[in-house]
Design goal:
This protein is of the alpha/beta class. The protein is built from 16 helices and 13 strands.
C-alpha cells in the first residue's frame, strides 16, 4: 500500500469506528481486524501503519468527529507528510479543500472534561488519559517467578511494590509464556491487593468478567480456599474456566447470574464470604489509554445508569459478607460519582460498615478510598475502597 492508500484505509476505518461509537457497536480493535480480514493483500507493515494512524487520530479528537475524513484532517493539519497523502491518487484521499471542516482536538467531549475537572483532575491529569498504556503482566506464582521472564526478556522491568508484576516492551509476544503470565495493568494488580486474600478464605468475585482478578486472587491464596466468580455476561464468564485451567487454578467456581435476581441465585452465600470483591461496571474513564474511542460512547444518561447499578451491587455484595468480613469496591473510573461519592454513599446508608485504611503501593486518598491515575501513578485509572462489615 502507498502512503496515500494507507491514509484512505484509515479514513474508511475511522468512519466505521465513529458509527460504532455512536450506535454502541463493536470496538475499534474488532473493526480493524474485520477490515483487514477482508483485505488479505495488505501486508503486516501496512496493517500496523494503518492501525497506528487510526489510533493516533482517535486520541487527537476530543468530541466524536462527524466522519473519518474530518478526523484525519485534524491530524493532517499537524503533519505535513500526512497532508501530502491527500493527493487525489487512485487509492488515496481527495485533495484537501481550503474550507473543509476538521474535527476538534481535545481529551474528551466537553461535558466529560467538565466532570473530570469537578472530580479533581487538572489539565495534566486529563491529558495523560490520551496517552498510550504500557504492557504490564502479572507472573502467576502458581507456575513460576518473574525471574523466568527477565531471563528471557532483558528489557522487562519490575514494578515497584508489586513483586509479581513486570512492565514489558510494547508488542512483546506473550504466547510462549501462556499460563505463566497474565496481561494485567499494574493498577489492576494494585487494587486487587485491597482484597488482602489469604489461604483458606472464602471469596466472592461478584463481577468477575473473564476472571483476571479471580486468577490473581487464587494465586495469592496459594490455591487454598474457595473463590466464587460471578457475572451476568455468559460470554465473558465462559472465558474464565479455560484460563483457570491453563493457570493451574482449581479453587475458582463460576456462577452465571441473572440481572435483577442475583441475590436469589446467591442465597447459599449470604453472610458467608470472608471478602466480596466488586469490580463494578463503570464508565471506564480510567482506561482511555487502551480504549480511546470509549470517550465517544459515553452519555450522561449512561453514567447515571451505571451509578445506579453500582449502588445496587454494593448493597448486594454487603449481604454476602460474614460479620467482620470485608467488602472491596473497585471501578476503573476517575469520576467521583462512580468512585469516592459512590463509596461514601454506601457507608452512609449501610449502618455499621466502616472504611478501612488502605496501604497500597500506588494511589492517593480520595474520599473513603484511594484513586490511581495515569499521570500520578503510571497505571490505568482506578478508585478502590475497602469496608469492614459490622
Amino acid at each position: 500500500m502507498t502512503p496515500a492508500a494507507r491514509a484512505q484505509a484509515a479514513i474508511e476505518l475511522l468512519d466505521t469506528v465513529i458509527i460504532a461509537a455512536r450506535d454502541n457497536g463493536p470496538a475499534a480493535d474488532t473493526l480493524i481486524q474485520r477490515y483487514f480480514a477482508a483485505r488479505r493483500y495488505a501486508g503486516s507493515k501496512d496493517r500496523r501503519a494503518v492501525r497506528e494512524l487510526v489510533y493516533a487520530v482517535i486520541r487527537a479528537c476530543g468530541e466524536r468527529p462527524a466522519g473519518g475524513r474530518a478526523a484525519m484532517l485534524l491530524l493532517a493539519g499537524q503533519d505535513a507528510d500526512l497532508a501530502a497523502t491527500f493527493d487525489g491518487s487512485p487509492h488515496g484521499p481527495a485533495p484537501i479543500a481550503a474550507d473543509e471542516p476538521r474535527a476538534a482536538a481535545g481529551v474528551a467531549p466537553a461535558w466529560l472534561t467538565e466532570r473530570l475537572a469537578a472530580s479533581g483532575l487538572d489539565a495534566a491529569e486529563q491529558g495523560a488519559l490520551a496517552g498510550r498504556a504500557p504492557l504490564d503482566i502479572r507472573v502467576n506464582r502458581l507456575k513460576g517467578t518473574p525471574t523466568q521472564i527477565t531471563e528471557q526478556i532483558a528489557a522487562a522491568e519490575p514494578i515497584a511494590g508489586l513483586p509479581d508484576a513486570l512492565r514489558l516492551p510494547a508488542g512483546t509476544d506473550l504466547a510462549p509464556f501462556a499460563g505463566l503470565v497474565e496481561p494485567q495493568d499494574a493498577g489492576s494488580q494494585v487494587v486487587t491487593l485491597a482484597a488482602a486474600p489469604q489461604p483458606g478464605q472464602q471469596i466472592v468475585d461478584l463481577c468477575a468478567g473473564a476472571g483476571g482478578k479471580t486468577l490473581a486472587l487464587a494465586a495469592a491464596m496459594g490455591e487454598q480456599g474457595h473463590i466464587l466468580a460471578c457475572d451476568t455476561d455468559r460470554g465473558r464468564l465462559s472465558r474464565l474456566s479455560p484460563r483457570a485451567a491453563q493457570a493451574g487454578v482449581t479453587i475458582a467456581e463460576t456462577r452465571l447470574l441473572n440481572p435483577g435476581r442475583e441475590l436469589e441465585l446467591l442465597a447459599d452465600w449470604q453472610g458467608r464470604a470472608d471478602t466480596v470483591l466488586i469490580d463494578a461496571p463503570c464508565s471506564g474513564t480510567g482506561t482511555w489509554r487502551r480504549n480511546p474511542e470509549a470517550r465517544w460512547r459515553l452519555t450522561p444518561g449512561r453514567i447515571d445508569r451505571l451509578v445506579a447499578m453500582q449502588a445496587r451491587l454494593l448493597d448486594l455484595g454487603a449481604a454476602l459478607v460474614r460479620p467482620g468480613g470485608a467488602l472491596v469496591y473497585v471501578v476503573c473510573s476517575l469520576l467521583d460519582e462512580e468512585g469516592a461519592d459512590q463509596a461514601g454513599a454506601f457507608a452512609s446508608r449501610q449502618t455499621g460498615w466502616t472504611p478501612a485504611a488502605l496501604s497500597l503501593p500506588a494511589g492517593s486518598p480520595r474520599g473513603p478510598g484511594l484513586r490511581l491515575t495515569p499521570a500520578s501513578d503510571g497505571t490505568d485509572g482506578f478508585f478502590v475502597a475497602r469496608f469492614t462489615a459490622p
